[in-house]
Fold each of these.
Amino acid sequence: MNGSPWGGSEELWFATAKLALKQKHTVSVIYRFWGDQEHDNIKSLRALGAKIIYRDMDLCVSKKHKWYEKARLLLKFKLNIILPPRPDLITQLSYAALIPNQIDVVCFSQSATFDLALSEKYLDLITQINAPYFIISPGNKDFGYSLNTFQRKNAKTIISKAKTMFFVSKNNHKFAEHQLAASIDNYAITANSLNIDNLTICPYPTNLEDTVFVSVARLDITTKEIALQIKCFAEEVWRMRKWKYLIYGSGPDKDYLQDLISYYGLKDKVFLCGFAEDIRAVWNKGHILLQPSIAEGTPLSLQEAMFCGRPAVVTDIAGNTELIKEGINGFVAAGPIYNALSEALERAYLHRHLWEDMGRAGHKSAIKNINTRPEVDLLKALIN
């Protein structure tokens, strides 16, 4: 990951941009430079001929605006395009000077459903775009997130003018309408692009002394409740059991989670393993996925686990329960709260003799229901 956040939302626009380049379209990408190195995927787009435009780090006014700190993809097919990814922060520049006279198509990839509505300058920007535009909504936050009257008005205008708003789960679409208190009719359901080629089941690890729980997630407790998941394992009942909890990923709360592991005396049980380069290697030694989502679309880690033949414990958030059915291919916690997570974890453990069969059921469901190449349909929609 080279120090950069990269997940399902990035994979979708990245795969779409890559496909567009291979079809000889012209692609420009605006992206925030996150660390000391350029992300390998950005390098690959550049090598294919994409124009990469990094936003100025000095324009980032505050780390609290995490929802803005995501990639913005701008696709067009004849002319180059340069647009500010965070127009609310670019106060000294004229939008008219930044936007070419002719644009074929624009695709905004958001972090959360209503990012474009958070500032009136997004509306100003869209007003100046004399071209069709599409919006990708890769996820939403079901808890502690609301829009004020101004933002809801902005959202209704921006969404109504879009050709299509893409959601990655049916539940995301339904909840967006709830938050907006209005229908969103110009929508389509897509999926996050999978970063896995081999879709066969990984051999189930039967020779391990410990039960191995796995999370694959960005270490950000505003979107994944990894902290409470760790707390669940600090309960006395777990002190007497043979288990390990492997957490793969990076993010801003890594140090806090490491301190929490030490605080609960779990340094020999819970491990922060860093970024997983090979997801199948992860599941060759893991029995079940723990997905304590707070904000979600349809998580890549869950889809990957299903294709690898593993069950999951998920929260009843967004697309999680569109994939996981209680007692069939996993277990569902009512929400990202301590009691619900603890109860679901205990329920799963007491049925661990069924996990291998549940994993097979999940794999069968994944093969049947998950679109592994959503970028094909997305690019077709943009071109048409």
Note: The first helix runs from residue 8 to 22.
Amino acid sequence: MPSKIKVLQVIPKLGYGGAETGCYDLAHYLYEKDCKSYIVTSGGDLIKFVDKKKVKIIRLPVHSKNPLLIFINTMILTFIILLLNIDIIHARSRAPAWSCYFATKVTRRIFVTTFHGTYNFHNKFKKFYNSVMVRSKLIIAGSNFIFSHIKENYSEFINLNKKLLVIFRGINVDYFDQSSIIESDEIKLKNKWEIQENKKIILMPGRLTSWKGQELFIEAINLVNIELGYEAFYAVILGSDQGRDLYKKKLIRLSEQYRMTKQLKFIDNCKNMALAYKVSDIIVSASIEPEAFGRVAVEAQSMQKTIIASNIGGSNETIIDEKTGFLFDAGDAKSLSKKIMRVLNMDDNLLKSLGIEARNNVIKKFNVEKMCFSTYSEYKKLIN
């Protein structure tokens, strides 16, 4: 085995999503394990936090699905692989994965992919396009849910020469730790959100898109209000519309219809998500389609906050129902409202013990160190 494994990760953009933070965390971990670590990306907000002494950033337009650019990226990646003598090329999205696939064919280097989502398909062409994610030597599924999805839909592309396994996504449990939050910062954030100090907060984080279930959340809050009144708590929808202004307008109209404009806050972003969780009492993930992993549920548990999530997809794996959080019937506003009311009426000591159990669950199964160690271990097996 060479003294230093040289790993090139390829990702469209290095933003704040689960795939992106996983790429970022692994890149720095590899350096600590005496590997040479590179990231090829088109850009992104997370780049400014990369330690350039540890991880080399190479900018290429790998976010593009344009066939000509995919071909050009293939040529450039082939050159980079040979120039830097890369051992492993790890692709984390479909468009750049095609460039990686062809480049590794030419250079005869090891190709690894991480299946971060379900990549739904409606025709044979889309399925073929998605199939690049299972054309690698090592296929990493981010959850058992994704593992099952791959087995059910892409088995014809998997043979005995390929390895398919689950490595759960991990989060930084030191960052998502309530003891790291300063009380004065909590007061500042509540003032910024125009929230009274003595009221409970129900937080729903996530980008504004219909399948994330913000509409369902508003419907559920309305049902809670019918039972408890408008003064019992605040509700916060935290996330950018990413250009989906029509959907956001629809949500605002719905909140106006239910007369909750003072109670419900729309917040575009929060740079300190740990702080956003800390000031909140209940965290909701109301996706009406399966989450591949469900990062919100894991982050909330790490912060010892009560999480209520849809009983589909990754949440079934990350939450132990009634022990580390609560699951409700996906797509059912009444089911969600009942869970919210139940938690609002629960004893504080019981919620505290549930929060401790939740954090232990994350530390044991979903911490970033475990994710990085498992991936690095698989890299070493491939090289040997």
Note: The chain is about 45% helix and 15% strand.
Amino acid sequence: MRVTDIREKAVSLSDPMSNAGISYLQMTASAVAIDIDAGEKGPVTGYGFSSVGRYAQSGLITERFAPRLRAAEDISGVGGGLDPVRGWAVMMANEKPGGDGDRAGAVGVLDMALWDAAAKIEGIPLWQLLSERFNEDKAHERVPVYAAGGHYYPHGDLTALTDEIKSYLDQGYERVKIKCGQNGLEDDCERIEAVLALLGGNGGRLAVDVNCICSTSGEVQAMADAYAPYGLAWIEEPGHPHDFDLLATLADHYDGAIATGENLFSVSETKNLMRYGGLRSDKDLIQVDPALSYGVVEYANIVRLAEAMDWPRSQIVPHAGHLLAFHTVAGLKLGGHEIAARPDFLLGGLQEGVTVDDGYAALPETPGVGFETHQKLWQVLSEL
């Protein structure tokens, strides 16, 4: 099997939402299509759509990694099917260690398209292929999920926030996550209390993401003191992703759970987080994003690393809310999946027909990732 064509374009997300650190008005993402000559099974196209928060990687894809895949004579596996692991090795040939960043996202979106094509060739959903390949055929029967939203909007207020969260509860979600950190701790507490009023005061159903807003030990300690009475599910991304001392300070000062890792992109970076970040494997969460961390191939190695360092899979909850992460959580039996639940957001929701009930999502049966059954994404990908 071989690649016959690769197409990429940068897609504007152009959304008015923001978090404590960035706006999405000018945010972009890469969409890719990879055509595969699958022999007797005919031509097959796999699709990828990169995760949010890191912009499109058009230059790296079109100038460096796509040409390597096009030049590969064969990326078949032992059984004759498409082997994304072999394709990944082709892309990473002659690449030095380190310097992950946008390179990891560029490889990740192409890797996603290869896995989409591989599952389509086998006629099975991606979660099933990942379960067979990496998890001894074990998979979730249904996937624990939570609704991520609660961003800041121009002219937004607490009523808009609570209306948004109500809509997620009406959709069948039990747990939600909101953004904080943009306007100080007093405003944070007002937002938290407004949402907790909808959750029966149960802080375990609410997570708070501050998007790396803290830079000093005093700031993380003040935040911990302000948030502690609420008994939150977790505090997410307290400071710079490489400031492990700051993270360890929070872990020493705060008894509740911490979630982090979405801005780390490799096995090595995850290893350093687990070694030096002061995290506790019985309560804290690792949120490395498969689409941003070189794709499924590297992510499977990250899961193996975590287990070797005594982190249970239940504490691995990927960032992003995209379909690849959902299949990864399902097939590798990880701790849960974040869903960007706002229905008008380009990446929002799951495949059509996949329902959420009491905080769990059903498994899709569509072969591949299922982009063809996600109306908003398919409108973009079908034009490639």
Note: Residues 78 and 310 are 32 Å apart (CA to CA).
